[in-house]
Structure formats: C-alpha cells, structure tokens
Amino acid sequence: MRNTMLGFVAVALAACQSPPPVPHHTALEPASEPATVPPQPVLDPGVVPPRSAIMDQSVTITPPAKGIPTKYAAFSGMWAGRLEGTYEAKVAVQTISPNGEVTVTFAWGNLGDNNPGEAAGVGKIIGRTLKLGRLPNGADVSLVMLSDDTLAGTYTLAGQTYTGMFIRQ
Which pTM value belongs to this model? Predict the structure, then answer.
C-alpha cells in the first residue's frame, strides 16, 4: 500500500511540473521587408527601465551638410527601439558623408546574455539600408529605412539575431 501511495504521489508531482522553457530566438536573415518585423511598442523617452540602453551624453549628431543626398540625410539623428519587443536599443547616426558613409554609436540594454553597453562604429548606406561594420563587441547591425520614416533593425551577436523597429527621437 505504501509503495502504491508513493507511486501516486510521484505521478501527481510529475503532472504538476512545468515543461522546460523553449528558446524563442532563432537565427533570421536581416529584415528586408516591413512585413518581417512585428509592430513594436512606442518608447517613452522619459521612462528609463533598469538595465536599459543608455547613450553617452557626449554623443553628438552633426546635421548633414548641403550636398548630402536626401536619401542618406534621412538616416541622420538619434533613433530608439526595442529588439524582439523587449530589448531596448538606440542608434545615433552622427555623421554622413556624400558617398553614404556614416559614423554611429549603438547602445543596447540587456540583450539575451549580453549586458548593457555602447559601441562606436562606421557603416555605409546602400539604397535604403544602412549596414554597420562589425561593432567592437562582435555584433552586426543593419537598419532599413521604411516608407513611414522608421527603421527596421537587425542585430546579430554570437549566433543570435534580434529584430525590431526604431523611431526617431
């Protein structure tokens, strides 16, 4: 009888256990169409949650000079978004040259196993896409200008790819 009771208890305990979490991040190709990026919540710049993306206050934006094509100048400025709807990120497109080369600073909050940080980098605009050179932390970033003047971003680090929308701040 005692063994039967122990058997029932073991079955009952097993039934109460939750299944292990299923990882939801899979490697994706960079966003190329607006339909590949789900809608993201609008950020409130006055609210800074813990371990969020913080851009160094010394980062400055140099307005595009005369002669910079409009399609390049549209990328200039400070942008903020959420990757996968959860992970806060910011990008400052600081300078743009007439041939589409840019200097940027990219900041991220908690991003998977990656702690918050900031990295300076360079990149190039080709068509509607700003592709950054590999950042010092090993991340690859690309941003596609959409028709509504938002950016569809892709951030890849250590085999994990995160996507999200960025709005001008």
Answer: 0.69
